[in-house]
Amino acid sequence: MSNEIREKDHEWVKNFHSNFDRLLASLEELLSQHQPSVYGDELLTDKEVAYLLKVSRRTLLDYRNNGILPYTQVGGKILYRTSDIERILINGYKEAYRYSESG
């Protein structure tokens, strides 16, 4: 790109503004579709949680049945609060330790 000064009627400037306007319209559309989370907490589906935890959906069923992972059911859809998942992960966290070599 050269260092020349471009006027507002220059084709490059017009193209830039056109692209910028389209980008802005796309962002506004995306933001208008965003639904706020419930009580400040995002809800995730079975598929999303299984992906995040790197487990199968069957394992999630076991977690639910054993009372390990809280959930809510709306109709036939199972949903999980991100705060519950975070709490479970934090509660299950184990500190690393070192073996004593003098032992």
Automatic annotation (TrEMBL):
Pfam families referenced in this protein's UniProt entry, alphabetically: HTH_17
The entry's keywords: DNA-binding
InterPro entries noted in UniProt: DNA-bd_dom_put_sf, HTH_17
Domain of life: Bacteria
One GO MF term attached to the UniProt entry: DNA binding
Location of the Helix-turn-helix domain: 43-88
PANTHER family: HELIX-TURN-HELIX DOMAIN-CONTAINING PROTEIN, PTHR34585
Protein name (Swiss-Prot/TrEMBL): DNA-binding protein
Organism: Bacteroides acidifaciens
